[in-house]
Amino acid sequence: EQPEDEFECPTRFGYFADPKDPCKFYICSNWEAIHKSCPGNTRWNEKELTCT
C-alpha cells in the first residue's frame, strides 16, 4: 500500500494503531509509515500488535 503523509512514526520501526480507524494500522519501517487494513471484520489490537 502507500506511505501516509499525515502519520509520523514515533519510532523508527514498529506497529501503531490508526487513531482514526480501529480496523487499520501503520507499520513503520525506517521512519516510513505504511498504512494497512485488517482483514475481514478484525480490528487492530494494540496489546497483541496484530488484527484480532
TrEMBL record:
PROSITE patterns: CHIT_BIND_II (PS50940)
GO molecular function: chitin binding
Xref: Gene3D superfamilies: Chitin binding domain
Top-level lineage group: Eukaryota
SUPFAM superfamilies found in the cross-reference section: Invertebrate chitin-binding proteins (SSF57625)
InterPro entries cross-referenced by the UniProt entry: Chitin-bd_dom, Chitin-bd_dom_sf
Record-level GO cellular component terms: extracellular region
Lineage: Eukaryota, Metazoa, Ecdysozoa, Arthropoda, Chelicerata
Protein name in the entry: Der p 23-like allergen
Domain Chitin-binding type-2: 6-52
